[in-house]
Design brief:
Layout lengths: L4 H7 L22 H8 L15 E3 L17 H19 L13 H12 L11 H10 L26 H4 L4 E5 L5 H9 L4 E7 L1 H7 L10 E2 L10 E11 L4 E5 L11 E5 H7 E9 H6 L21 E9 L3 E4 L2 E9 L4 E8 L4 E9 L3 E6 L2 E11 L16 E10 L1
Length: 415
């Protein structure tokens, strides 16, 4: 460390926004495992709908105050991107809150970081970070809490060991419903941002990135990151949040977690040309309201609610195509196609009670296979007939879809 131990002790109780930089960041962000990525692919999520004509700019930073500071001792960049960034934006949108200064109204990275460290191991080393997927998993399964409830202390070397489980009842209010990994391209990012969804990104940065970003930038002359210092510069993994874009600047707007002295109040830009050279992973999260509001928005007629006459001895439905990322609703039962592998001829379905979003079952099927389950005194049966294109060009612009759909036969009977 560059400074003495006594200096650290003086700073240990200071909150997240009151710190100056001490040194350059370590390579703290952890990359997700293949299994973690597979779990993202097999998670049901709402579709984003089609967007063909995009506006010249989108800026979600209006739903945030100045940036927080993760410090240089705790590898909490993923937690800042996910809790301080994504969840604060979601809550601000629900409250119609913009351009506010109270950082205590933001959501705390401490809960997400500490819980992820506890759940996924390695609470001994606070400098070692967590994956974005781990942060989003905590946010989905447990939630987070406001900064006013749980502060983040960037220069506490043991901060990640602070127990936070007692805040679970509060965290429950701030959960997301699901998350997904979008394609890494300019149009897809713009389309997602235009739907008011910020994007957590994994980026490789060099030493010059922090040095350049800490210069005296202004709104009229913002920091636009366009390249590494050299082609062979050492690179370090870091998580940030994409919150907008500007075609005039030809750049995406980014929330960093290096404090408000970086860029302009902690925000800067990455040029369109460099964005997907520096970014190697990305995730979008859906608020719980999205799961009920947007899940079948703009869906074609074959995906609309089919009312079941449960007084009949047996009811059979045919010609039901369900594409990955979509739901079809039969009465009170929602069946979502969460993962479709046309090479292995397999599908993973999530069965949910459409009335309360309670997950009832996760079903893996091969083509030709049929499985049954019992719920509320009824026998439900799903037969996976085949994989094919879903009719005449119905779903070509669906979010993160591979172009194929599952053809299901659904039956329900009274026991």
């Amino acid at each position: 460390m560059k400074n003495s131990i006594c200096f650290i002790v003086l700073l240990i109780s200071m909150p997240v926004l009151a710190q100056e930089r001490i040194n350059l960041r370590s390579d703290a962000l952890i990359d997700p495992t293949p299994e973690e990525k597979r779990l993202v692919q097999s998670t049901a999520k709402p579709r984003l709908g089609d967007t063909i004509i995009l506006p010249p700019s989108v800026d979600l930073s209006k739903y945030l105050p100045i940036a927080g500071d993760q410090g240089s001792i705790q590898g909490a960049c993923s937690a800042f991107a996910v809790s301080f960034g994504i969840k604060t934006i979601q809550e601000s949108i629900k409250m119609n809150r913009t351009h506010f200064d109270n950082t205590d109204a933001c959501l705390s990275p401490t809960y997400v970081f500490n819980r992820a460290k506890e759940l996924f191991g390695n609470t001994e080393d606070c400098e070692r970070g967590i994956t974005i997927i781990q942060a989003l998993t905590v946010l989905r399964d447990e939630g987070t809490v406001p900064l006013s409830t749980l502060k983040f202390f960037p220069f506490d070397p043991y901060g990640c060991q602070q127990p936070v489980g007692m805040y679970k009842p509060i965290a429950e209010k701030y959960r997301i419903s699901s998350f997904d990994a979008p394609e890494l391209n300019e149009f897809e990012f713009k389309r997602i941002l235009n739907k008011n969804h910020p994007i957590a990104i994994s980026v490789k940065v060099d030493d010059k990135f922090e040095l350049d970003g800490s210069k005296n930038w202004t709104n009229d002359s913002p920091f636009i990151w366009k390249s590494y210092a050299t082609e062979d510069a050492p690179l370090y993994r870091h998580a940030m949040l994409c919150v907008g874009y500007d075609d005039n600047l030809k750049a995406f707007k980014i929330l960093n977690s290096y404090g408000d002295k970086f860029g302009v109040n902690g925000f800067f830009y990455i040029s369109y040309d460099f964005m997907f050279k520096a970014t190697y992973d990305a995730y979008v999260a859906f608020d719980r309201k999205d799961a009920t509001k947007d899940i079948i928005a703009n869906a074609p007629s074959a995906q609309q609610n089919l009312n079941i006459n449960t007084t009949m001895d047996f009811q059979e439905f045919q010609n039901v195509w369900v594409k990955r990322g979509y739901y079809v609703i039969f009465g009170d039962i929602m069946i979502g196609n969460v993962y479709l592998d046309y090479k292995d001829n397999s599908v993973t379905l999530q069965v949910t009670d459409a009335r309360n979003s309670k997950v009832l079952n996760r079903i893996d099927l091969l083509v030709g296979e049929e499985k049954e389950f019992v719920y509320e005194g009824r026998l439900h049966s799903i037969n996976f007939k085949k994989i094919d294109k879903a009719g005449i060009n119905w779903y070509t612009k669906a979010f993160n879809i591979n172009g194929k759909a599952a053809y299901l036969n659904y039956k329900v009977s009274n026991l």
